[in-house]
């Protein structure tokens, strides 16, 4: 897909003198946005390390036709498995470091959106062919696609109703669970299962490719969303596309949330263009993949109502009626095409079986139980149930308030929809790392301060490692989480403060020299030029770095100026 013009823009040149390049080389580098080589190559090395390691310590097959009973089988056991594990986690660390280096250049205005996309593409390519990383969900998808082909209703039975290679590789927790996904995804999974037959390795690769349009849709939408929501395109692409969560979890793990957020982002883009029928149709398709995305539909209705005539209640009723009509037509078409019924609605409760502290209400319930258990032995169930109910009440009230605050429509409604989607991810009874992508698909396009980006770095890196590389839970391994948390915090600080530990040669031996006193004031003749006549170029734009200081709070490494940030998109 050709990036939109807003992704392009001249990058500020590297201060280092480049080696002479041929005309063809310069032409290709220009087309690719002049991506900085260091983060590109570091991230590529990280992806290749994870690719190799994933065959031994990722979501490997129970009976791998390539590694089982072969000379390469050692990679899955003993010291071979330990080495594979080292490669995966070493790759994660190296990917994080490459992402931070790229982020510094994005904040300093040294790279444009096209360069960020080029680097992200290089990082992502190895992830398309590796075994699943940090999850086994993709095996569940293949089994749910195979169920209707075998004559079973995927909304009535789990994968264990259909013994075979697909079911053998589904995580034991989901063996008997009906599919909680919408008809569009069942249609897609059924198609992949039909093409691949019993070739599960091909099935994993094709499932990733079938979900990849979601990534392309997100890339298409983010530049325009950034312009309309007040963000910067390179920052949005760095935060949403080059993020290790996207590279490792969404693509390397092969989660169907990727397709849902792509449809969501493009739907919101069309809503901002006042193309509301298309917007609601696209969001309905997103809901037909992942039901949680439906929470954005009422916000699109308010945006539509804001452009109609009449009193507010009448406008909302008109927009709601039209929106429901579009929704029913599109959703019915998906259901008929997939050959299923509405049995997936009861199956939506399946994720609630997950109990972990990533869901804020669940975490509070577990914490309260742990405190009370110091004094008396009690069952944890009621603590979790009560806090989940209270969390649901808080969520419903918050959604209603944010929805009503969006009644004027416009970009503000999209921002609030992103906040609500993020709140749904963390306040629902169950939360998994990739659930936070629902809200970030929209919020990546808003204006971010360097401090807020530091928090985003910390959370993103922690979300990558809270599950083990083979898909098992690591949420209650406190020494491991503490160690990873310290590294993630160091990465977050490094985004705006290079060498925070002062490890560079001579960094600790430098003697602090007190600044020289300022020169005495110079008398300047009073002028009669009014403030309004001062050239706009002499006034720093709000949110842009002042002369000599980058947005990251460090001196620029190139001839950056306050206006350069605007030129880079």
Written overview of the protein:
The model is unreliable at 1-19 and 521-569 (pLDDT under 50). Helix 2 (37-57) packs parallel to helix 4, helix 8 packs parallel to helix 11 and helix 11 runs parallel beside helix 19. The chain contains 22 helices and no strands. By secondary structure, the protein is mainly α. The two termini are 19 Å apart.
What is the mean predicted local confidence, pLDDT?
86
Could you tell me the radius of gyration in angstroms?
26 Å
The span between the termini is: 19 Å
Overall shape = globular
Number of helices: 22
Question: Which secondary-structure class do the elements indicate?
Answer: mainly alpha
* Overall number of strands: 0
| Helix amount | 55-70%
Largest sheet: none
Point out poorly predicted stretches: 1-19, 521-569
Strand content: under 5%
- Which series of helices and strands comes N to C? HHHHHHHHHHHHHHHHHHHHHH
Topology:
Elements: H1 23-31, H2 37-57, H3 78-107, H4 113-124, H5 137-149, H6 165-168, H7 183-196, H8 200-229, H9 233-240, H10 244-251, H11 257-272, H12 276-287, H13 297-305, H14 312-338, H15 344-347, H16 360-372, H17 381-405, H18 411-427, H19 437-443, H20 450-465, H21 478-494, H22 564-567
Helix pairs in contact: 2-3, 2-4, 3-9, 3-20, 4-9, 5-7, 5-8, 7-8, 7-14, 8-9, 8-11, 10-20, 11-12, 11-19, 12-13, 12-14, 13-14, 13-18, 16-17, 17-18, 18-19, 20-21
Salient structural properties:
single chain, 569 residues, mainly alpha, disordered N terminus, disordered C terminus
In short:
By secondary structure, the protein is mainly α. It is built from 22 helices and no strands.
């Amino acid at each position: 897909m050709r990036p939109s013009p807003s992704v392009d823009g001249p990058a500020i040149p590297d201060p280092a003198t480049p080696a002479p390049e041929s005309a063809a080389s310069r032409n290709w580098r220009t087309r690719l946005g002049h991506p900085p080589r260091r983060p590109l190559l570091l991230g590529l090395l990280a992806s290749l390390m994870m690719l190799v390691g994933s065959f031994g310590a990722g979501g490997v097959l129970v009976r791998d036709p390539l590694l089982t009973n072969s000379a390469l089988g050692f990679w899955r056991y003993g010291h071979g498995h330990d080495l594979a594990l080292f490669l995966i986690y070493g790759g994660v660390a190296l990917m994080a470091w490459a992402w931070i280096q790229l982020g510094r250049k994005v904040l300093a205005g040294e790279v444009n959106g096209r360069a960020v996309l080029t680097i992200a593409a290089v990082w992502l390519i190895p992830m398309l062919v590796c075994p699943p990383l940090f999850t086994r969900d993709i095996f569940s998808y293949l089994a749910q696609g195979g169920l209707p082909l075998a004559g079973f209703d995927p909304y009535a039975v789990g994968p264990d109703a259909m013994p075979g290679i697909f079911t053998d590789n589904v995580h034991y927790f989901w063996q008997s669970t009906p599919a909680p996904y919408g008809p569009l995804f069942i249609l897609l999974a059924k198609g992949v299962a039909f093409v691949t037959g019993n070739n599960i390795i091909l099935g994993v690769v094709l499932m990733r490719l079938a979900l990849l349009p979601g990534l392309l849709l997100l890339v298409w939408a983010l530049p325009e969303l950034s312009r309309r929501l007040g963000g910067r395109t390179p920052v949005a692409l760095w935060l949403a596309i080059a993020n290790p969560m996207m590279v490792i979890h969404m693509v390397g793990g092969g989660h169907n949330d990727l397709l849902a957020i792509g449809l969501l982002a493009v739907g919101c883009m069309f809503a901002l263009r006042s193309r509301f029928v298309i917007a609601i149709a696209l969001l309905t398709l997103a809901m037909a993949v992942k039901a949680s995305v439906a929470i954005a539909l009422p916000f699109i209705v308010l945006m539509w109502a804001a452009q109609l005539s009449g009193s507010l209640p009448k406008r909302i009723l008109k927009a709601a009626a039209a929106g429901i009509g579009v929704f029913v037509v599109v959703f019915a078409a998906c259901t008929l095409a997939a050959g299923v019924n509405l049995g997936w609605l009861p199956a939506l409760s399946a994720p609630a079986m997950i109990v972990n502290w990533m869901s804020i209400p669940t975490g509070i319930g577990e914490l309260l139980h742990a405190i009370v258990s110091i004094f008396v032995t009690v069952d944890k169930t009621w603590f979790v149930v009560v806090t989940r109910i209270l969390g649901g009440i808080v969520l419903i009230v918050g959604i209603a308030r944010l929805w009503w605050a969006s009644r004027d429509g416009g970009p503000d409604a999209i921002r609030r929809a992103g906040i609500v989607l993020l709140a749904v991810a963390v306040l629902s009874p169950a939360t998994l790392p990739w659930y936070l992508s629902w809200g970030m698909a929209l919020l990546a396009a808003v204006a971010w301060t360097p401090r807020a980006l530091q928090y985003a770095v910390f959370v993103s890196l922690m979300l990558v490692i809270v599950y083990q590389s083979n898909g098992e839970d690591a949420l209650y391994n406190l020494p491991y989480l503490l160690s990873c948390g310290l590294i993630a915090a160091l990465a977050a600080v490094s985004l705006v403060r290079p060498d925070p530990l002062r490890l560079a040669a001579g960094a600790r031996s430098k003697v602090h020299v007190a600044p020289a006193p300022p020169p005495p004031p110079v008398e300047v003749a009073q002028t009669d030029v009014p403030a309004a006549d001062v050239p706009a170029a002499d006034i720093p734009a709000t949110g842009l770095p002042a002369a000599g200081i980058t947005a990251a709070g460090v001196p620029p490494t190139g001839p950056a100026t306050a206006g350069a940030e605007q030129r880079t998109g």
